[in-house]
Amino acid sequence: MKIIEGGVTAAKGFKAASAEAGIKYKGRKDMLLIYSESPCTAAGVFTSNVVKAAPVLWDREICSGIHPVHAIVGNSGIANACTGEEGRKYCSETAVEVSNLLGVPENSVLIASTGVIGMQMNIEAVKKGIGIMVPELSDSLEAGTGAAEAIMTTDTHSKEMAVEFEAGGKTCRIGALAKGSGMIHPNMCTMLSFVTTDVSISHDLLQKALRKVANETYNMISVDGDMSTNDSVMVLANGEAGNSEILEEGQDYKNFEEALYTICKEIARMLAGDGEGATALFTVHVKNADTKENARTLAKSVICSSLTKAMIYGHDANFGRILCALGYSGVVFDPEKVVLSMESTAGSVLLFKNGDPQKFDEDYATKVLSQKEVIAEVDMNMGSEEATAWGCDLSYDYVKINADYRS
Amino acid sequence: MKIIEGGVTAAKGFKAASAEAGIKYKGRKDMLLIYSESPCTAAGVFTSNVVKAAPVLWDREICSGIHPVHAIVGNSGIANACTGEEGRKYCSETAVEVSNLLGVPENSVLIASTGVIGMQMNIEAVKKGIGIMVPELSDSLEAGTGAAEAIMTTDTHSKEMAVEFEAGGKTCRIGALAKGSGMIHPNMCTMLSFVTTDVSISHDLLQKALRKVANETYNMISVDGDMSTNDSVMVLANGEAGNSEILEEGQDYKNFEEALYTICKEIARMLAGDGEGATALFTVHVKNADTKENARTLAKSVICSSLTKAMIYGHDANFGRILCALGYSGVVFDPEKVVLSMESTAGSVLLFKNGDPQKFDEDYATKVLSQKEVIAEVDMNMGSEEATAWGCDLSYDYVKINADYRS
Fold first, then answer.
1. B81 and A320 in contact by Cβ < 8 A?
2. How far apart are CA A142 and CA A5, in angstroms?
3. Among A13, A109, B30, B358, which residue's Cβ finds the most Cβ atoms within 10 Å?
4. Rounded to an integer, what distance in angstroms lies between the CA atom of residue B9 and that of residue B7?
5. pLDDT score, position B234
6. How far apart are CA A114 and CA B66, in angstroms?
7. Coil, helix or strand at residue B163
8. Chain A residue with minimal CA distance to B54?
9. pLDDT tier at B378, thresholds 50, 70, 90
10. Does the annotation mark B190 as catalytic?
11. Does B229 lie at the interface with A, CB-CB under 8 angstroms?
């Protein structure tokens, strides 16, 4: 497996386009379209929030594997969540518009929205945007990048990535784009990630790989603990790589899963590191936990704490807050067995061991905590399971961005 | 029942003192002592954090009702949490010092600390402080207020309250002090509350009343979702009111419980409204839920959301965030049945009904959301249970206070 250039247009047979539709934002792109002429197998994982946006309800059905999929149409600015019957009608109208212009069935069109909740969609702008994008669809890498830019809300940079791997003697590709920033606590502002691949794989295995990988990557990040109404990760596989269809969990499946994991992990890290107002990526690695589930719970509890996040922002080795967050996670453990250190490219500093705070040089600790990625290494000394979670610091800018988001 | 002046010295037979011991802070009081010559029945509820501070371990045993209690000694500046064997030894030394100077048994002394976690206690300063306070013990209301001031960390004002009620034909009193501010998400920087009463009541009923009331008050507030290692609510009852001991759940018990609830609710509201960096008290009232537990979970989910908190700070009626936080609470409900409005002394504005966003005047909504207390009224239309939770907004100052708390 190797990393290659590009994003959603890296895989064979996928085209993309983006447009300034004027849905809510002015003077920037706010719509994207991804299209494969070859029919795709589609899988998806969606928010577990009880309040689900209209597009999530639409997509869940389509990703169940009954129909082939050809396109994803997405917009930023308005989330189409808490919009009732009217919001659901707009999903249908959006799919019909794409269907008419691309000549594909209405139920082969996936829809994704991100932005303000509780505001009705500007459907005329959406239709206008689709009309602009369809004739501009291109398989260039730039077209993929344009799509990644169009879906941004408060993201400070676009996110995309692509890798190449082997299956059945053929070279296959996976590409992805994503947006994140705020209301990021996936199980789901919105986390959206669209993945395209030219591998040929059954719907069941595609869904299985996506669920497993999402659980270890997207579901292990948090910006602010708020799980969105719109979170969606969708993967389209069009089979154009020409490998014989992956139907069982052999070497080809492993290669695909590894490639998908690599992409989703890096994208998840990008999302966490570009959380609203973030100045640093905060990684928590819990090792030697008694169970995998406990390792996950402990790691997530630390990245979700407002106080650990503020401590990273202040470059302050106030490690008691990390122990405190481990302690209220719901996992039972012996605090006196925990060994805690903080690491970064600037070095490593041991903070807590054998139940006692350790002496450390404050200036050195500040330097360790002042890098772009700060890692808390937590050894539970209870077993052999591990997990990693990714978050970010809590800054003035997070508050600023969210105090008046709608304006 | 009526509200009276004072705090922990309002009840008969309780004295208090405070001192500048120089434990960590400079130029301010940082220790308090509460004392009753008459032996007290004591009850307590403590943090459910797995990482428990040394004083919590000490107090839990003493509040089990085996020994009578005479005193509470408290300090701010250092939390004595994550301090291992050495930290536990300091609890014992503190109790011995109080025991020697007051002539009461060592196991009749409760201890409470709040401040930085993972830093060893300055035990010489603690002993010095006890030496200053013992000769200054006074039953004046000012002495109670002084104690409430000494326990503050990042609190912007001290918190105390007292009420009077009838039991067995006698007038009884309850007084309390508390500190809160950050790391406030009680189930427990620390929430400490000390309650004194001159009622005569059995240990079992005192503990029962405290647990029930704490569950409806202290456990329904959150400043930042971080449950401290030190949270403790302790109540001392010395029986000096002269009522015949409350031994069953009759009218006297009801009067006591109502008085305790009134105090704890108001103290809890003070703690939430004075959360670190807070500019407003954010109250969420959920009604017509299917179960009490679900009503509680829904209300707490909304006050704990960084995004609803930032919205209150920005006076922005971005109500989708409230629905979003209800949606990820874990409670199953039909979003289309929810009716949501925001209220304050400036009026009421309906935001969401029948699954649809409601039209509202933005200027009026901003005015409603700009008051010192902002209330979200959430009607689930599922049943008849209700719950209230109290939080605060999320401001730049929360980040500022916590980015470099140890300095």
1. yes
2. 10
3. B30
4. 6
5. 82
6. 59
7. strand
8. A355
9. very high
10. yes
11. yes
Say whether the ipTM exceeds 0.85.
Answer: no
**Structural domain boundaries of chain B?**
2-273, 281-403
Cβ atoms A13, A241 nearer than 8 A: no
Residue B67 burial by Cβ neighbours in a 10 Å radius (0-12, 13-18, 19+): middle
Best to test chain B binding among A50, A231, A282 (most B CBs inside 10 Å) = A50
Which member of A145, A190, A196, A297 is catalytic? Answer: A190
Confidence of residue B187 (pLDDT cuts 50, 70, 90): very low
Radius of gyration of chain A (CA): 22
A330: left (phi over 0), alpha (psi -120 to 50) or beta: left
Cα-to-chain-centroid distance, residue A310? 23
Q: How many whole angstroms separate alpha carbon B173 and alpha carbon B139? A: 14
Whether B398 has its CB under 8 Å from any CB of chain A: the answer is: yes
B280: pLDDT strictly greater than 80: yes
**In the CATH scheme, what architecture does the domain B281-403 have?**
Roll (3.10)
Q: Is the pLDDT of residue B355 over 90?
A: no
* pLDDT at residue number B171: 92
Nearest CA distance, B391 vs chain A (angstrom): 14
| pLDDT value at residue B188 | 35
Residues in contact with B260: Cβ distance below 8 Å, sequence separation at least 6, in sequence order: B174, B195, B197, B209, B210, B213, B235
Closest residue in chain B to residue A309, using alpha carbons only: B403
Q: Which long-range contacts (CB under 8 A, 24 or more apart) does B254-259 make?
A: B255/B1, B255/B165, B255/B166, B255/B167, B256/B165, B256/B167, B256/B172, B256/B174, B256/B197, B256/B199, B256/B201, B256/B209, B257/B209, B257/B212, B257/B213, B258/B1, B258/B165, B259/B1, B259/B163, B259/B164, B259/B165, B259/B172, B259/B174
How far apart CA A54 and CA A85 sit, in angstroms, is 9
Q: Is residue A204 within 8 Å of A180, Cβ to Cβ?
A: no
Q: How many residues in total does chain A contain? A: 407
Chain position carrying tokens 């969540």:
A81
CB contact A313 to B (< 8 Å): yes
CA distance A260 to chain B (A): 27
* B interface test, pick of A303, A318, A359 with most B CB neighbours within 10 Å: A318
CA atoms within 13 A on the CB side of B16: 30
Which CATH architecture describes the domain A2-273?
4-Layer Sandwich (3.60)
The CA radius of gyration of chain B, in Å to the nearest whole number, is 22
Match 């008085």 to its residue by tokens: B259
From B132's Cα to the closest Cα of chain A, the distance in A is 30
